[in-house]
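[audit] Reproducing an earlier prediction to check determinism. Same input, same settings, fresh worker. If the tokens differ from the archived copy the diff job will pick it up downstream; this log only records the rerun itself.
[audit] input (276 residues):
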Amino acid sequence: MDETRAPLVTFVTVNYKTPHHIRQLLKGVEEAGFQFSFEYILVDNASGDGSVDMVRERFPWVRVIESASNDGYGAGNNLALAEARGEYILLFNPDLAVFPGEVEAWLEWMHVRPDVGISGPRILNPDGSDQESCYRFPSVLTPVLRRTFVGRLPGARKALDRYTMKAMNRALEQDVDWVLGAAMLIRKTVLDKIGHFDPRFFMYFEEADICRRAWTGGHRVTYAPVARFMHYHGRESRIRFPWEIVTNKLARVHLMSGVKYFLKHLGSPDPRSKAV
């Protein structure tokens, strides 16, 4: 790649103690054989498990940023975004599987839709079934219903199904409120306009927040099934019993992020009404 020219795509992955996933992801990127110019930035959030040394030795084409501490998903991404040079930013989770041709199809789709600021692909579970990957903006009760036993109470299922867009046809392109950060394609010009991730969200709600800001800025957020990826996802913040609200750290983080999100956007109008 000509280092004097800005690459078309900057791939960004934030890693925290997932050396096996990182190895498989980067092997998949190599095997995909991208024909477009790109740079790959991996941010390690103080894993301390040998991930950094492994990546530098096995994948020297990856630029590694070592964070001195684990400040969360959004803050980790921001370290890379501050140095990104690509026309597009493509966020990849460590537990994502990349297939040949999918990224190219996604980029071509995005290129002819200049009013789309952020998009998300079709994401599959390891068994080939569709995984939740796009959502409506949350209500105040969403994190409680989604991550606690309350979601199993009568009447809660309908609210959750609406939030996760369970009835949507996942074979069709469509605008959505927000998309999952496991695989997210963003125009750099949009980030330059709306800003990077809000570091107040350690984990969870940062994607809803940045997509909300994109809509507010007049940029569409769209589900794009033209590209497909597999995601080995585990819902570690889900709690099954009432007492786990105390013992499950990720559940507490999720609920606190929800509080921060609603305080930040309290009283704000529907941002989709401002889109072009």
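[audit] rerun output stored. Observation attached for the diff report: The two ends are 35 Å apart (CA to CA).
[audit] end
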